[in-house]
Design goal:
Layout: H1 3-12, H2 17-33, H3 39-49, H4 51-82, E1 96-99, H5 108-120, E2 124-127, E3 131-136, H6 141-164, E4 166-173, E5 188-195, E6 203-210, E7 217-221, E8 227-228, E9 231-248, E10 251-261, E11 269-273, E12 279-285, H7 294-297, E13 301-308, E14 311-319, E15 323-326, E16 329-346, H8 350-373, E17 377-382, E18 389-394, H9 398-416
Antiparallel strand pairs: 1-18, 2-3, 3-17, 4-16, 5-6, 6-7, 8-9, 9-10, 9-16, 11-12, 12-13, 13-14, 15-16, 17-18
Length: 418
């Protein structure tokens, strides 16, 4: 049983585990792609509803955490060896390991010449009674540390998002309460839509929600998504809220309704059925003659058609507050308001995913700077046990470093008469 935890640790800290899990998901994705065009959506639904796939996905953040622990230990162990600690040399700590004799230290003159050559190349050196070490450059371990933290955050966020994400779609209209996962909130005081000179977005949408008691105002825009009642607010489509009254010869009492219609931009149409009558009302925004945007200006005129079955019985154009009357048909547009069809998504995995993106950027910048300016190179010669061992490791510019390493080995070999 004592071997089982060690084997489990080797598996969970293996660098091959994450690529293997990703390969399995790619194979599942490829198999689904043969059956449907929405392979990614189907795969997400499978993971959300399958405990085995969830556990398989969870192996990635677990693996990154275990790799982080293992590599941090290795980094500390290597630093202690360079500092002269009497520690065993663990497998995998260095790129190259060479036996150099039976354990006797070279002559002091040989070590002095090696020391001088390495210092001339910019290495910092340390000579001990039973060992010697040299190093130069900055260590890239902080970049590796950040990378593994980023992998953990990314896949932990994906796992949390897939298993706990909830979504609510609603119509946000001026003057109406803002719907939310925690119930209705304060009324939306204003929706503004304007052109801007942005680097990415050319228009800006702002939903203002004011609390009449506290006076506090919240604003929800397109990007970055704001939060409301613990959910992220994602505006999806623009529309028009239309309040109308309709009457027909066989419907003298009339029919009144308030409906959010996805009829933006101008020319896009939407229908409202008149319940149990066979009538349908088709609305669309009229494009202003001056080329302005009716959603921006708020001056909205509606093209309408009154349909009975497949026949059109009347049509025309009405601004807000006007009415149409002909042949017993009456349609009054009582009010028009700006509407935004909005998704309210409660997703606790989004923030770790965003955090992972920032961490990856920092890790790459640090790694690139270190690799270009001063990559880490290390040498250790130890005679603390037989046989004596020479160790070498380079994170960049390894050709010149290897030349220095093998030149030092040649001097040690010549001194020992090998």
């Amino acid at each position: 049983m004592t071997k089982l935890p060690a084997r489990l640790w080797r598996l969970l800290s293996s660098g091959a585990l994450t690529p293997a899990v990703i390969a399995i998901f790619l194979l599942v994705y490829a198999a689904i792609a043969f059956l449907t065009d929405e392979a990614l959506i189907v795969l997400m639904q499978l993971v959300r509803g399958n405990l085995l796939l969830c556990a398989l996905l969870a192996l990635i953040p677990v693996n990154s955490a275990c790799c982080l622990i293992a590599e941090t230990r290795a980094f500390i162990h290597r630093r202690r060896l360079l500092a002269g600690a009497d520690l065993p040399v663990l497998p995998g700590l260095f790129d190259e390991e060479v036996a150099v004799g039976e354990g006797a230290a070279p002559a002091q003159g040989t070590l002095s010449r090696i020391k001088g050559n390495l210092e001339a190349e910019g290495y910092r050196t340390r000579l001990g009674e039973r060992d010697a070490a040299a190093w130069r450059g900055l260590n890239s371990f902080p970049a590796r540390f950040l990378y593994l933290v980023g992998v953990f955050c990314l896949f932990a966020g994906i796992l949390v998002s897939l298993t706990t994400r909830t979504s609510l779609r609603g119509a946000v209209a001026e003057g109406e309460p803002l719907p939310g996962p925690g119930g209705e909130g304060q009324a939306v005081s204003r929706i503004t839509y304007a052109k801007v000179d942005g680097l990415i977005l050319s228009k800006r949408l702002i939903i203002e929600n004011s609390d009449s008691r506290s006076g506090r105002k919240e604003e929800f825009g397109i990007y970055p998504p704001a939060r409301y009642q613990g959910a992220f607010v994602y505006p999806r489509y623009l529309g028009v809220g239309v309040a109308f009254h309709f009457a027909a010869p066989e419907l003298p009492a009339g029919f009144q309704q308030q409906a959010p219609l996805a009829i933006y931009p101008p020319g896009k149409a939407a229908e409202v059925p008149v319940q149990d009558t066979g009538y349908r009302l088709r609305f669309s925004l009229q494009a202003p003659a001056d080329g302005s945007d009716p959603y921006i200006t708020g001056k909205m005129a509606l093209n309408f058609k009154i349909l009975q079955g497949s026949s059109e019985v009347a049509s025309g154009t009405l601004p807000a507050g006007a009415e149409f009357v002909r042949d017993g048909y009456r349609l009054a547009i009582q009010d028009t308001r700006r509407v935004v069809i909005t998704d309210l998504i409660r997703d606790n995995g989004v923030i770790p995913i965003w955090f992972a993106g920032v961490i990856f950027a920092l890790a790459f910048c640090y790694w690139l700077a270190v690799r270009l300016v001063s990559p880490r190179r290390e040498l250790i010669f130890t005679w603390q046990s037989a046989p004596a061992v020479a160790l070498s490791r380079a994170e960049g510019r390894s050709r010149r470093h290897n030349e220095q390493f093998h030149e030092a080995l040649d001097r040690i070999a010549g001194d020992s008469g090998c």
